[in-house]
Fold:
Amino acid sequence: MYDFLISVVSVVAVLGFMILIHEFGHYAVAKWLGVRVEQFAIGFGKRLVGFRKGETDYRINAIPLGGYVKMSGENPMDQRTDDPGEFMNHSRWHRFLIAIAGPTMNILLAVVLLTVVYMVHYRAFARTRPHNRRGFKPETASSRSMESRIPRGSRFNPRSG
Structure:
């Protein structure tokens, strides 16, 4: 039972981190392009904790299975004003950049994590493997026995030039 709870907490933590990175992509590009962000939320449902800084309400909600960035004027059915901070008053190119920023951050996260994992794994692997020492060439018993069966000078002998 303890292992199951650890697994559930781990999945929620990893999923929450991925959601945070994804939503931060939308948030950062929206702020950079001058769109007013009303809410930055991780999770859905009722607000558990959070704070307000400037015009943005940062919050963690009850159901940790998603997140959202609420920008002003993002609903095309709402009454439009001439406010330059509203999402729909920006060009299609700006709206596209904001929309694609979340998936782009997920891809960048995957590239960075894989790079770090392979770098750390390679260093640990290189230190522990005996064939990585200078001058040592690994040779297995099966390769030695196979080479002894092939006559010298044969065209199948890998050691003959």
Remarks:
- Residues 14-130 form one domain.
- The mean pLDDT is 82.
- The longest helix spans residues 92-128.
